[in-house]
Specification:
The structure is a single chain. The strands form five sheets. Strands 6-12-11-10-9-7-8 form a seven-stranded mixed β-sheet, with helices on both faces. Strands 13-14-17-16 form a four-stranded antiparallel β-sheet, with helices on one face. The longest helix has 25 residues, at 324-348. It contains 14 helices and 17 strands. It has two domains: 8-48 and 323-420, Aspartate Aminotransferase, domain 1 (Alpha-Beta Complex); 57-322, Aspartate Aminotransferase, domain 2, CATH 3.40.640. The chain has helices at residues 8-16, 52-66, 70-73, 83-93, 106-117, 135-147, 152-155, 170-179, 202-211, 231-234, 306-322, 324-348, 375-383, 407-420; strands at 27-28, 31-32, 35-36, 38-39, 48-49, 100-102, 126-130, 156-159, 184-190, 215-219, 238-241, 256-259, 353-355, 366-370, 386-387, 389-391, 395-398. It has 421 residues and is of the alpha/beta class. α1 packs antiparallel against α14, α2 packs antiparallel against α11 and α4 (83-93) crosses α11 (306-322). The model has no long low-confidence stretch (mean pLDDT 96). Bound molecules: pyridoxal-5'-phosphate. The site of pyridoxal-5'-phosphate has 12 residues, from α5 and α6.
């Protein structure tokens, strides 16, 4: 990695050498006083590709032209629309095509997958998760435990960072797995912690979980489109993620689900079924008996939300063009530059900024504690054309995303932050 310099000229030089430089122009960037805002919130809602509108217009046109016949006559027939998303999605998360499907929304998918993969018994009923997981994940886990009649205090094992630390130590996870190896039913962790930006070693945790006889699933909301994933090879049992964060598919867009192929033949797995999980050749025969598809598509319940999938497809085609390798390469450099700029500010401002995201285990997000600051700092950042994300009491989460953020964004962010501190 190059030696960085905290100047606009240097940032512009890095931008001129950036292989993905052209992609920034392919997005709508929110404006502030006539210039681009510094948008570091792609970890919360990715920006809109300029092509999204055309993808949506195509479906609106086909709907207007064909009505219900669009299911078969649309340019991309709706009846099989989700299938055209599969190969490219599989590439993003490192899975086989039969292992991924786009359906529903993230929390819904977590529940549907837990219906099949959290099957507690009197002996094995515990769930191991990270402390302070994203609230929706906590509620999902708690309600699953209660639904099966177990008590929360007993059944949910939360792994927290040690006193005074922000990073969860992997050895603490392995110790907890070992200590509960006779009662552990499920491990469910975020691949990237949404608050600290810490990346977990999904392969090693999965292996440790399996050794203890547990099922292992991950919430990849902050991992999909951010990290290079190898879900199949890492041998995860299941995973789910949303498409509106790093995957730029628009607010509330259709979510992803992964079920490892080793579970596909097992038709005894209980599940909440719907007609879209039924054998495709027979779907319209409207038979009484459910005949499950022998792939992850079995977990689909409803027919596909085409408008949301069209928005996803616009972004997906771009991801496919760029590839996770190129994104990853730029991501590392862009985030390292942000880290450098923050440390430069610290030299002048008495180390008031503390990066709590582990250096060795991170994607593009840096979570920064602004010591001695409050919400006023965040408000001032917004007034100055920066959109970061604020978590009480004083954490700024910044995600310079490689698809559309520039080194100049990072430089300008540092300039504004220094001025405000
Ligand atoms: C963003 C996010 C969610 C949001 O869930 P939805 O069902 O899409 O509303 C859930 N869990 C995690 C870890 C997230 O980052």
């Amino acid at each position: 990695m190059s030696t960085f310099i905290n100047t606009l000229a240097f940032a512009k030089q890095l931008d001129s050498q950036d292989a993905l430089q052209a992609y920034r122009q392919k997005f709508h960037i929110p404006q502030h006083n006539g210039s681009d805002m510094i948008y570091f919130t792609g970890n919360s809602l990715g920006l809109q590709p300029k092509t999204t509108k055309a993808y949506l217009d195509q479906e609106l046109l086909d709907w207007a032209t064909y009505g219900v016949e669009g299911h078969f006559l649309a340019k991309n027939p709706w009846v099989s629309y989700h299938e055209i998303l599969t190969d490219k999605t599989a590439k993003i998360v490192g899975a086989k095509s039969s292992e991924v499907v786009m359906m529903n929304q993230l929390t819904v998918n977590l529940h549907l997958l837990m219906v099949s993969f959290y099957r507690p018994t009197k002996q094995r009923y515990k769930i191991l998760c990270e402390a302070k997981a994203f609230p929706s994940d906590q509620y999902a886990l708690q309600s699953q435990v209660k639904f099966h009649g177990f008590s929360l205090d007993d059944a949910i094992i939360e792994i927290a960072p040690r006193e005074g630390e922000y990073e969860v130590k992997h050895e603490d996870i392995y110790k907890a797995i070992e200590a509960n190896k006779d009662s552990l039913a499920l491990i469910m962790i975020g691949g990237v912690n949404y608050f600290s930006g810490q990346v977990f070693d999904m392969k090693a945790i999965t292996e440790a979980g399996h050794k203890a006889g547990a099922i292992v699933g991950f919430d990849l909301a902050h991992a999909a489109g951010n990290l290079k994933l190898e879900l199949h090879d890492w041998n995860l049992d299941f995973a789910a993620w949303c498409s509106y964060k790093y995957l730029n598919a628009g607010p509330g867009s259709v979510a992803g689900a992964f079920v490892h192929e080793k579970h596909h033949e097992n038709t005894d797995l209980p599940l909440f079924a719907g007609w879209w999980g039924h054998d495709k050749a027979e779907r319209f025969k409207m038979a009484k008996e459910f005949n499950p598809i022998k792939s992850v598509e079995r977990w689909q319940m409803s027919n596909a939300p085409i408008l949301s999938m069209a928005a996803y497809k616009a972004s997906l085609d771009m991801f496919d063009e760029v590839g996770m390798d190129a994104l990853n390469k730029k991501s590392k450099e862009l985030t390292a530059y942000l880290e450098f700029v923050v440390e430069e500010i610290n030299k002048q401002k008495n180390n008031c900024l503390e990066i709590i995201t582990p250096k060795e285990n991170r994607g593009c997000q840096l979570s920064i504690v602004a010591h001695g600051q409050g919400k006023a700092l965040f408000n001032k950042l917004m007034e100055n054309g920066v959109i970061p994300d604020w978590r009480e009491p004083n954490v700024i989460r910044c995600a310079p995303v490689p698809m559309y953020n520039s080194f100049e964004d990072v430089y300008r962010f540092g300039e504004i932050l220094l001025k405000l501190l």
